[in-house]
Design brief:
70 residues; 0% helix; 3-stranded antiparallel β-sheet
């Protein structure tokens, strides 16, 4: 099936004294929280597991990070 995945990143850079920078990052992965299959259990038409998903896309998650530059 088709997939619609949306990943977002928001960042902001703060200046530090003495020519340094701190960048704060927020990543939101699978922002639409779509559940789609990544892999099928079997592609044999005569198998009872034909076209059943075996691995699904991870649910929505967020990551917070920081990057320090001198």
């Amino acid at each position: 099936s088709s997939q619609t995945l949306l990943d977002l990143r928001v960042s902001h850079v703060f200046d530090l004294p003495h020519n340094g920078h701190v960048e704060l990052l927020l990543d939101v992965l699978n922002a639409l929280n779509q559940t789609s299959e990544e892999r099928l259990a079997d592609d044999n038409y005569f198998s009872q597991n034909f076209a059943r998903p075996s691995v699904l896309v991870d649910p929505r998650r967020a990551m917070l990070g920081a990057r320090l530059t001198f």
